[in-house]
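Async update (no meeting this week)

Hi team, since we skipped the sync, here's where things stand on the single-chain job. The sequence we agreed to prioritize is pasted below, unchanged from the tracker. I ran it this morning and attached the output directly underneath so nobody has to dig for it. Comments welcome in thread, and please keep replies under the output.
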Amino acid sequence: MADDTRGNVVCTGTVDGPSEPLPPSRRAFGAMLVGSAAFAMLPNSAGAAPNVGAVRVVDFDWVDEGRRRPVPARLYWPAAGVRRGSVPLIVFSHGLGGSRFGYSYLGRHWSAHGVASLHVQHAASDREIWRGNLIELVDRLDVATQEEEAVARAEDLRFALDRMSDPTVGAFHTLIDRRRIVAAGHSYGANTTLVVTGAKVVREGRTVEHRDDRFKAGIVISAPPFYGETDLGAVLGAVNVPTLHVTATEDVIRLPGRYSPVQDRLDVYGYVGSQQKMLAVFQGGSHSVFTDRAYTGGVDLNPQVKRATAEAALAFLDLAFGGDARPISAWSAKWSPILALAPTPFPVRPADRARIRRFT
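Output:
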C-alpha cells in the first residue's frame, strides 16, 4: 500500500512468497550462500508471538539515489512507553527471495516489548527473483548471490540506518538509543549481518569488508557458511560484537548438487571472533522454521521455535547491553524441552554495561 517517505502512514499487510532456495554463487561473497528455506510471508500465521503491547507498523518506500537502488523497509515500532533516546533498534535482513513483509512474528514481538525492528528489503535478491521464466530461475539466483549483491545488501542496511537517523523521516531519530542498535538476519540475511559486524574476505589481494560500527550486536539465525573460503577464521575473526546464533538440529540445506549440514551453522558460530557469543540449538525444526511459514519443522514445534527465538533475542540483549544473565538463564529453563543445546551466558564487564531498563 502507499507509504510516504516521512513515515507517517500506519499500515498492515499480508504478502505471500515462494520457497527460498539459496544456491551458492560462483563468485566472491555470493559463494558463501546456500539455503533451501521455504519463505512465505504470512504475518501471525503461526500464532507464535502474541502482541503484549501496542505496535505501530510503518512502511517506507525509500530509494538510495546514489546507488539508484530502491530500499523498501517495514518498521515495527513500540506504540507506547517511548521516551527520547530510549528505543533499541534491530535492523533485520531477510533471506534470499524474501521481502520486508517477512519475519513479522519477530518484528511484532520485539516491538511489543519495546524494541523497534526495521525489516529491510534487498531489491536484487528479494521476492522478484521468483517471478519470470522458470527456465531462467537458476540464472536469477546466481545473480542474486554474487559479490555485488552481497555488498549491496550491506549497503542497504547502512542506508536504512542512515534514514532512520534522518529528521525528515520523522521523530524516530530522537527516540532511538544509539548505544543499542543491532543487526539481525536469517540465512542470506544472517551472512549480511556478519558482514556489517566485521566479516571480511580477501579478493584479488584486497580486503573486502563493510563493517558499520553503529551496529553494536548481531543476531545470526541459520547462517550459511562462507562457501569458497578455506579459512573461515580469517573471514569471521574480526566480528567482535556480541552475537546470538540460533539454529536447529534439522537446519539442513538441500538443493540439487548442493548440500549444507547443520555443522556449517556451528562452524560459523565457532569461528566468530567475539568472545561474547551464545549458541542456541533447537531439537528438530528445519531451515525454514524461522520464517513466517506456519508448518515447516512440525505443526506443534513450529510456533514454539518462533516464540522461543523472539524471546531469546530479547534475553540476549539484556545480557549484551545490560550485563544481566538472568533472562537468558530463565529462557533456557523455560524452553529446555525443545532445546538440543542451551546458550551459555558470556561475561560482560561492568564498564561495558549500558544503563538501561529491562526489555521484557
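Quick observations from my side:
The CA atoms of residues 37 and 265 lie 14 Å apart.
Residues 19-352 form a domain with the Rossmann fold fold (CATH 3.40.50.1820).
Reply here if anything looks off.
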